[in-house]
Amino acid sequence: EKDKKEEFMFLGLRMIEGISKEKFHQAFDRKYDSVYGEVTEKLVQQGLIEVNGDNVRLTKRGVDLSNYAMSQFLLIYFSFILVLCKLIMFRVSLPRLHCELCVITVYKCCW
After folding, report:
1. Shortest CA distance to 46 belongs to which of 110, 104, 105, 88?
2. What is the gyration radius of the CA atoms in the chain, in angstroms?
3. How far is CA 36 from CA 13, 67, 71, 106, in A?
4. pLDDT digits (tens, 9 = 90+) for 52-83
5. Which residue has the higher pLDDT, 14 or 84?
6. H-helix or E-strand containing 19?
7. φ/ψ of residue 58, rounded to 5
8. Which long-range contacts (CB under 8 A, 24 or more apart) does 9-16 make?
9. What is the percent of the chain with per-residue pLDDT over 90, rounded to a whole number?
10. How would you classify the pairing of strands 55-58 and 19-20?
C-alpha cells in the first residue's frame, strides 16, 4: 500500500497536470490531505508545488528541483534514512552535502 501511494505520487508529479486528489482518494480510500497534507503545505511554501483545486503539480522551480520535491512524498523509508544520516553526522567527520534549500544536511555516505 505504501509503495503504491509513493508510486502514484512519483508518476503523477512527473506529468504536467500533476495528480488529482480525488483520484488518489479513489485509488487508496484515503483523503490526499490526510496522507500528504503536511508535505504539500511545506512544498507550497517553498514554491516547489502548487495546488489548483483538485490538482497538485510541480511549479517551474519544482521541476528544477524535482528529485528533492518528490523525495518528500516518500512515507517511511526517507524519514528512516534522514534519522540514520543525522546519527552518522554526529559521530563521523565527513564532508557534508547541503541540499539547495538548506533544509537537510547529510553525509556523502548516505547518498
Report:
1. 104
2. 15
3. 13, 17, 12, 23
4. 999 999 999 999 988 888 888 876 544 555 55
5. 14
6. strand 19-20
7. -70, 145
8. 9/36, 9/70, 9/73, 10/70, 10/73, 12/56, 13/49, 13/56, 13/57, 13/58, 13/66, 13/69, 13/70, 13/73, 14/66, 15/57, 16/57
9. 49
10. antiparallel
**Closest to 43 in 3D by CA, of 18, 20, 68:** 68
Dihedral sign for Cα 103, 7, 75, 54, please.
Answer: positive
| pTM higher than 0.85 | no
Neighbours of 80 (CB within 10 A): 10
User: Cell for 16?
Assistant: 504536467
Residues in the chain: 111
